[in-house]
Amino acid sequence: MSRLLPGRLIRPLMVIAVAATAGLAAPAEVEAFNNQQAANFLSNLQETAAAELGDTSASDQQKEERFRKLFNESFDVPAIGRFVVGRYWRGASEPDRAAFLEVFEDVMVQRFLPLLTENSDERFQIGTVTPDSRNPDMAIIASQIPRAEGEPYKVGWRIREKGDQYRILDIVAEGVSMVITLRSEYATVLKRSGGKISELTAALREKVSGGAFAPPQ
Question: Rounded distance, CA 146 to CA 151, Å?
Fold first, then answer.
């Protein structure tokens, strides 16, 4: 599977995001999505990521456990799983769905945990919150990641509010959507297997076992 986002961009982005698709004012008629609380959610997430995954006294196993916890608490993993599998999700059994979500988590751990450890001091700047006109419970939060030379990286976070909780559905970095990229990549395997999620799961598990998703050194 190819890299999801441009090389240097992925490092500061996921350090802050997973550790979880300028003004905060929104149109007055949209009441369901609390812009300030959503911005606070992202701000708190990056501080938690920096503190827990940048802890030099923690063992590798402890950092992995912290990553998994933050990933599941901050991202709507079942919703992302349904989206990236697409129409094949409906025809899959519950055991096959559960197995896919389990290996999907393993993929994320292998891909991003080393980057979290290496870049735990990175920060992004939270920008505008734009409510989704089609769903009042969703919004895109803009952010920028400064870099030493050139314009800052632009990253959008698609977030859904459920009650008093927030979950990330997607990360869009420089126009590249994480979940759409995954959906496209997985579709190739699913079409070849006749839509069997179990075969996609097996293929991902084999790659995880071989360290295929680990970032290059």
Answer: 7
pTM: 0.80
Domains delineated in the chain: 7-206 (3.10.450.710)
State the distance between the two ends of the chain, measured CA to CA, in whole angstroms: 17
**Cα–Cα dist 53/59, whole Å:** 10
* Residues linked to residue 143 through DSSP beta bridges, in sequence order: 126, 155
Cα–Cα distance for residue pair 99/78, rounded to 1 Å: 12
The maximal CA–CA distance of the chain, rounded, in angstroms, is 51
Report the Cα 212 to chain-centroid distance in Å: 19
pLDDT band at 26, cuts 50/70/90?
Answer: very low
- 3-state secondary structure at position 217: coil
Please give the backbone phi and psi of residue 168, each rounded to the nearest 5 degrees, phi first: -85, 130
